[in-house]
Amino acid sequence: MFEKGLLKNKRILVTGGGSGLGAAMGRRFLELGAELVLCGRRREVLERTANEMRAACGGSVTALPCDIRDGAAVESMMDEIWREAPLDVLVNNAAATFIAQTEQLSFRAADAILAPTLHGALYCTIAAGRRWIEGKHAGVVLSILSTSTITGRAFTVPSAMAKSAVLAMTRSLAVEWGPKGVRTVAIAPGSFPTPGASGQLRPEGRDQGWAARNPLGRVGATSELADLASFLISDAGAYINGEMVVQDGGAHLRSSGAEDLLQWSDAQWEQLRASRGKR
User: What CA–CA distance (Å, rounded) separates 92 from 124?
Assistant: First the structure.
């Protein structure tokens, strides 16, 4: 679909890049000629993914463990990256979510979602943006959001709040940083099943007919998301700034994706809370 060197000479940091959608995007960036940096909290996961990518695609892949919930840790990571060369692209992919009755959320549970999804994205964006602006180096920030930014979403309220805030950041910085050579863009994916997300959002007992109700009758393929991300961060997408592209097969036009949970009984919610407590 793309020229093999579409992302040649692009140095790209993917947060939450050790698994799931982050790893899928990272692998595609590498195939298209990028130099890749993956960050996440679990060193062993990052190293395993980096080794698999090098074996499959060749190229440069660096694994940097970092807890993006810690602003000081983010600054240290960016210092380490910049010692070798500036980034060209930041992909804010790391996030957390799970379904819950909002009135049952503790402060700690809410913070577990807000910290990586909102604060981590902000810390990484500010750290990269400041370095780009001070160095007069062009940059791109791509944030992976969700269609809850359009519809809202019951039972994942902290995530919907965080993603909506990052969309506001994307639009605001497009105006503030665009004149300084920094673009900000976003993708709102629909259902692109990964083991981690499915475990949190589609537990046993949830309606399993959701994919068939998508207007296209299917879920998304991670390759489709990775190709869209590659275009948006490439020079071919250089005139797109401050926009969020929805990639969900039209699902958000029919449903927010949470309506089935309105029919859950108290017993079902209690069973879910009990199973989560055992992990």
Answer: 8
Q: What is the mean pLDDT of the chain?
A: 93
The residue whose two tokens read 């930041």 is: 90
**113-132 pLDDT, tens digit each:** 999 999 999 999 999 999 99
φ and ψ at residue 104, rounded to 5 degrees: -95, -5
Among candidate residues 26, 35, 29, 24, the one with its CA nearest the CA of residue 2: 29
Place of tokens 């919930």: 69
What is the pairing mode between strands 35-40 and 61-65? Answer: parallel
Rg of the chain over all Cα atoms, to the nearest angstrom? 19
The burial class, CB within 10 Å (0-12 / 13-18 / 19+), for 102 is exposed
Q: Evaluate the CA torsion angle 92, 6, 246, 248 in order and state its sign.
A: negative
Q: Which range (52-61, 150-159, 201-210) has the least confidence?
A: 201-210
Helices (H) and strands (E) in the chain, counts: 10, 7
- Asked if 49 contacts 23 with a C-beta cutoff of 8 angstroms, the reply is yes
Question: Above 70 in pLDDT, residue 203?
Answer: no
Cα–Cα dist 27/50, whole Å: 9
Alpha carbon distance 144, 21 (integer Å): 9
- Model pTM score: 0.91
Per the DSSP assignment, residues forming a β-bridge with 15 are 39
CA distance 238 to 257: 32
CA distance 70 to 67: 6
Contacts of 7 (CB under 8 A, 6+ apart): 29, 32, 33, 34, 230, 233, 234
Give me the residue label for tokens 């780009």.
Answer: 132
